[in-house]
Amino acid sequence: MSRTYKICAPFVPGVGHHETSAWLSSEQAATNERVDNIRIAPIPHGGLMATHGAGVHGGPVRVRAAVERLKLWENGRRLRVTFLDGVAEVQDKVATIAKEWEAVANITFDFVSGGASEIRVSFAEQGFSWSTVGTDALTVPSTQATMNFGWLEPTTSEREYQRVVRHEFGHSLGMIHEHQNPAALGQIPWDKPKVYAYYAQQGWSHADVDANIFDVYVEDSTNHTAFDPTSIMEYAIPDSLTVGSYAIGWNTILSQTDIEFMQRQYPRGSAGMVELTVGAPRTAAALAVGGEVDTYHFDVATPRTHIMTTEGTTDTVMTLHGPNDPGAILAWDDDRGKGQNARIVRKLFAGSYWLSVRHKDPAATGPYTIGVKRSG
Predict the structure, then answer these.
(1) How many angstroms separate the CA atoms of 18 and 283, rounded?
(2) For the chain, what is the domain count?
């Protein structure tokens, strides 16, 4: 771990704090990019309590749920990547390895020589490797880097290129550090005094260590898998920094869990945002991949009560966003419709609205239909 100084810290200074008309906050950027970056996830046992409104069969019903806040790009997105500096040989190696993610996620990295770009790569900050996480890149001024490789040289080993480039471009797609996965809590027997002392030698404060090593994301801030020590997003953990006998080496390849997880976040064959017309015939759809979220948009011309439903044999969860703000959750429902379907009845004012639909079981799939109509 001789080169861990500020390696791939996701909390890049200044990200998400440009609260002017020119720059978006982190949450605004995420929800403007993809409506399902805010998701409702029912919790079958224990957890948070949330009221999801009055149904047609009675008064308010209190059910358990979590609000997941993600930073994923729109599925199928073409992300433009440009190099702000660096030598051609290193740039070519980075681009080749970065594009390996295209075989996993339904995303294209389009390396461009100039003009507007979502991801901007620099090599100028020596000793530091980092990337913004997903749509946080949109909060960074267009002249500044969103990713940095602080020690890649023409003579750097291929294994080191693979390790660092796969990791940082994983961040760029919205992945967090695996040891900060909520499921990692209590899984790594850190010897905290030794960890603090080790990173102090490299200029880290206790707060830096807490933010980048010990702190895990809260359960409802991200979707995640069980802790995966083989993930490309995991740091190496030497035995000298843990209690007992526990160590993780530098991972250089995507684990099977990495691959399956990102395939669910960016599924191929997804219809993308589907337009619905109020009062039109129902639209047939399918949740074809475990964890898939389908998204819909519709407009309301005049205030009136609307009924939004799914139908079929699939156990759906539906969330209503708006008006005119995909980051605002108005209502959600699990199974107030027919069978295990979702049904939302609400007076809507003029404006744009969005619906997101997912399976209640994150691993399950199935067909359904969706429709929006006016009451009466």
Answers:
(1) 40
(2) 2
Which carries the bigger pLDDT value, residue 224 or residue 102? 102
**Are 162 and 97 a contacting pair, CB within 8 Å?**
yes
Compute the C-alpha angle 87/88/90, nearest 5°.
70
Q: Is 322 in the same domain as 248?
A: no
Residues 241, 282 within the same domain: no
The last residue of a domain, from among 265, 299, 328: 265
More confident residue, 303 or 291: 303
- Domain match, 328 and 361 both: yes
Comparing 349 with 15, the larger pLDDT belongs to 349
Question: Which of 242, 265, 288 represents a domain boundary (last residue)?
Answer: 265
DSSP 35-49: GGGEEEEE-SSSS-E
Domain annotation covers residue 67: no
- Name the nearest CA neighbour of 286 among 363, 341, 362, 368: 368
Q: Is the pLDDT of residue 170 over 80?
A: yes
**Residue numbers of the domain that contains 172:** 78-265
Please report which helix (H) or strand (E) contains residue 195, including its range: helix 192-200
Query: At 128, which helix (H) or strand (E)?
Result: none
- Residue 222 maps to which CATH number? 3.40.390.10
Collapse the DSSP code of 207 into the 3-class scheme (helix H, G, I; strand E, B; otherwise coil) and give the result. Answer: helix
Could you please report the per-residue DSSP string of 150-174?
A: SS--TTS-HHHHHHHHHHHHHHHTT
Cβ-count burial 341-368 (b if 16+ within 10 Å, e if not): bbbbbeebeeeebbbbbbbbbeeeeeeb
Distance of alpha carbon 41 from alpha carbon 68, whole angstroms: 7
Range of 25-29, 38-42, 53-57 with top mean pLDDT:
25-29
pLDDT reported for residue 183 = 66
Please name the residues in contact with 32: beta carbons below 8 A apart, sequence gap of 6 or more. Answer: 24, 326, 327
